């Protein structure tokens, strides 16, 4: 396959950022929690894990920890597999699709979700997502096995989820090659100028202050952060390499679309995310990370 032109890579990166943000919306609004509450799933992290892990079936804590990568094992084990005793994976899948549909229609407006542009975007994203490879991409594969939703805006969200998980699976492979654990990758990201504050990230992922300090010490021993926890030049270079390699492994779906169609999809989805952000889809500390005009994007 021919190398992707520089401009196409830029649009691919922007499209990947936009679909990641679109995918995240039901996890930041109340819609999914409202649909899982009748089953007894009320803890915010349990809501997230039930929604995102449901395509895997009734997976246990070790599997979810391995595939999510960034969460503390004990934090996951407190919720999985207990959540499957409250809500089945099939019920959670139905809940998250209903939540995505309701959230997007409320935030974007009925005219937008029923528009020809939405239908076209769903087709483009679906085509890109369907062309990804399965080996080595377990979360992508689990989502790819699901039926495509009928409504275009929900189908777009489903395709965005597939694309997000495809990129995430590849990212974890690159972290493994760099011999970085999930928490170490978070420490590096938080120490960079592109990352969020430790105070936001660490509790969201279930890591203790002691876990974080131990990871920082290991990274210091490798010369990746300073004694004060500041990213060194070597650490910044490794982070840049990881981002580059993640993008390289993520190029296939956008190569299939080609530059002009990838650009079209990117601009449309960025517009949706901009509208959603303006409608307060994301909490204030995260809003700048999901605004379509910034290069800083939180990884769920």
Helix content: 55-70%
Structural class: mainly alpha
Biggest beta sheet summary? none
Please tell me the total number of domains: 1
- Assign an overall shape: globular
Protein name: SalK
Organism: Streptomyces thermolineatus
Describe the structure.
It is a single chain. The protein has one domain. It is 68% helix and 0% strand. Residues 1-7 and 292-300 have low confidence and may be disordered. The longest helix has 26 residues, at 152-177. It is globular, with a radius of gyration of 19 Å. It is built from 17 helices and no strands. It has helices at 6-28, 31-36, 44-53, 61-68, 73-77, 89-108, 110-113, 116-130, 138-144, 152-177, 182-191, 198-205, 209-221, 233-249, 252-257, 259-278, 284-290. The protein has 300 residues and is mostly helical. The chain starts with 5 loop residues before the first helix and ends in a 10-residue tail after the last helix. Helix 3 packs across helix 6, helix 10 (152-177) crosses helix 14 (233-249) and helix 11 crosses helix 13 (209-221).
